[in-house]
Design brief:
- With 541 residues, the chain is an alpha+beta fold.
- Helix 9 packs across helix 13 (501-508).
- It has 14 helices and 23 strands.
- The chain has helices spanning 115-122, 141-155, 177-187, 208-220, 228-232, 236-245, 262-272, 301-306, 319-330, 380-383, 412-422, 464-480, 501-508, 532-539; strands spanning 4-10, 18-22, 31-32, 34-35, 41-47, 50-58, 61-63, 70-72, 78-84, 96-97, 102-103, 171-172, 191-196, 201-207, 276-282, 311-318, 351-352, 406-407, 426-430, 436-441, 494-495, 515-519, 526-531.
Length: 541
């Protein structure tokens, strides 16, 4: 299909840097515009016949030119537009309607800033996919949106997940489990990498869920509260060894590198079911970065020989971090991802009550892991009772099936057993009518480290309401003491069926948010649960 050169102009004096972005670049690439020496910026791009929308990025700010044709898109964003007519059989040149662009006979040369883009657009041999789903597109909105996300993730690396300033907590395997338990609570984290000093390697992760197993084991072996001395007898290494002796197997370390693509990071997280994975780089010597002593500058052969095998922890990569990169990149061009404008209640994503469709979508079935309060994939049917609720779960709201939930008056031990039985990460806490009251998550177990509450009460005597009270009290105490900086994270994140997928994406981009509970706006009755991984699986192929 023939393409025609179109000259784009930003005529307003005062800008220092201007880029062009539009439907003809799939709203992904930005084309630098050149200053003609008078402060006017221009660039020539070859465009195929059809409608095109575009916008300027002026000194980092998205702008449209009101002197040129413009129109709002369905999301309320204002874009400039133009229409290029296809030539007829008479051989006449293609003409453009409206848009206010200038024709130019200039053909971009090898040194032209737009040459690469022009060649790609003119020689692609396929219809232009516009962000607004214009006629002539060869892809539907869902496919086009996923293709743009995939392209972005494959072109960007895990380096973008590393913040400018942060801290990472590491637990030595020689540390007593009690101290590790308190460390997670005091630092307000749900997991930490394990370091084996003898092996000079990271050997795994220890998460809040591990402490559920530890506390349940000690509480079942005695009729008294767990003593701190008892927990001090067991180091992390001993606990891992005992797990092997009892027929278990410590989960092997899963990690990624800083040069891995964001797509690789996302796939690693979703395929392994890990909430976070260490971002490791190898080659940091115990002596110096190049195997030399920092003071003498003398190289050590042994250090140089082993420097390539010593890992350095840079960050903990999470799926929320990847989704945050997607949200940040496309926030200025929402029309680039039309799929995000769809209401979540209409999409094959998440798990809902039977009234609203139950388990939705095939993407969630690829993992034998629970997604935010529900179990999907192989083995799920065997782990659930009728409607997804475990056999014998007396305090669950059966009419919310297949969503697993609990009640305030339920014993915490029973709620923990239910969570482990179906592999869930959290349980919505509801009243007799199924209205949402709170949520109990695995990470809340660390609240029992507040004032060593586990040493004062029996786990079997705690109700969910009492455990939640401890969680709220510990969060308030840590916030008052300055242990938590910034805004205290909300425990409960809800949505409605009419909320868009974009709203869900923005919410999951916040640190610590792992699930959205969909409720009826009037009754607050639970209607569905959408997890972080649900969104990841739906958007990322």
């Amino acid at each position: 299909m023939n393409a025609a050169p179109v000259r784009f102009i930003w005529p307003y004096i005062g800008a220092t840097k201007v880029h062009l972005c539009g439907s003809f670049t799939n709203w992904l690439e930005t084309v630098p515009m050149a200053d003609d020496g008078t402060g006017v910026f221009a660039v020539v791009c070859n465009l195929s016949p059809g409608y095109h929308q575009f916008k300027f990025i002026v000194d980092g700010e998205w702008r449209h030119d009101e002197a040129q044709a413009f129109m709002p898109d369905p999301l309320g964003n204002v874009n400039n537009w133009l229409f290029v007519k296809a030539p007829d059989n008479s051989g006449e040149e293609m003409v453009m309607e409206e848009g206010g662009m200038e024709w130019s006979e200039h053909r971009p040369g090898p040194g032209d800033a737009s040459a690469g883009l022009s060649a790609a657009v003119a020689g692609s041999g396929s219809p232009t996919v516009s962000a607004a789903g214009m006629p002539g597109s060869g892809l539907n909105q869902a496919e086009a949106s996923r293709a743009r996300i995939l392209d972005f993730l494959q072109r960007h690396t895990a380096y973008e997940l590393i913040p400018e300033s942060s801290k990472v907590v590491v637990l030595d395997t020689k540390l007593p489990v009690r101290q590790a338990f308190h460390a997670l609570y005091e630092q307000g984290i749900m997991a930490a990498p394990l370091w084996d000093e003898a092996a000079q390697a990271f050997v795994g992760m220890m998460a809040a869920g591990d402490f559920i197993h530890i506390l349940r084991r000690f509480s079942s072996a005695a009729s008294l509260p767990i003593s701190e001395a008892e927990l001090d007898k067991h180091t992390i290494a001993v606990w891992r060894e005992e797990a092997v002796q009892n027929g278990g197997s410590p989960r092997p370390l899963v990690s990624v590198g800083p040069e891995d693509s964001l797509h690789t990071v996302a796939q690693t997280l979703m395929q392994t079911g890990c909430a976070m994975v260490p971002l490791l780089v190898f080659g940091a010597s115990p002596v110096g970065g190049d195997g030399r002593d920092p003071e003498s500058g003398i190289a050590s052969r042994e250090a140089a020989a082993t420097s390539a095998d010593v890992p350095q922890l840079l960050h903990l990569a999470t799926l929320s971090g990847v989704l945050a990169c997607i949200a940040r990149h496309f926030r200025g061009v929402p029309a680039a991802l039309p799929l995000l404008s769809q209401p979540i209640g209409s999409l094959p994503i998440g798990t809902w009550t039977s009234l609203h469709g139950g388990h939705r979508g095939e993407r969630g079935a690829v993992l034998a892991e629970t997604r935010g309060g529900v179990m999907t994939g192989a083995g799920a049917a065997g782990a659930r009772g009728v409607g997804g609720i475990p056999e014998g779960a007396g305090m669950m709201a059966a009419d919310l099936s297949p969503i697993c939930s609990t009640r305030m008056e339920a014993p915490l031990a029973s709620a923990l057993a239910d969570m482990l039985a179906v592999g869930v990460s959290a349980l919505p806490v509801v009243d007799a009518n199924g209205a949402l009251m709170d949520v109990w998550a695995r990470s809340d177990i660390t609240a029992l480290a507040h004032d060593s509450a586990y040493s004062r009460v029996l786990l079997d005597d705690l109700t969910v309401a009492q455990a939640l009270a401890l969680a709220h009290e510990s969060a308030n105490t840590r916030a008052a003491s300055g242990a938590v900086t910034g805004e205290v994270r909300r425990r409960l994140h809800t949505c409605n069926r009419s909320d868009t997928l974009r709203t869900a994406l923005e919410t999951f981009s916040l640190p610590g948010v792992r699930r959205l509970i969909c409720v009826d706006e009037g009754t607050q009755r639970v209607e569905g649960v959408i997890s972080l991984t649900d969104v990841g699986l739906f958007l990322i192929s």
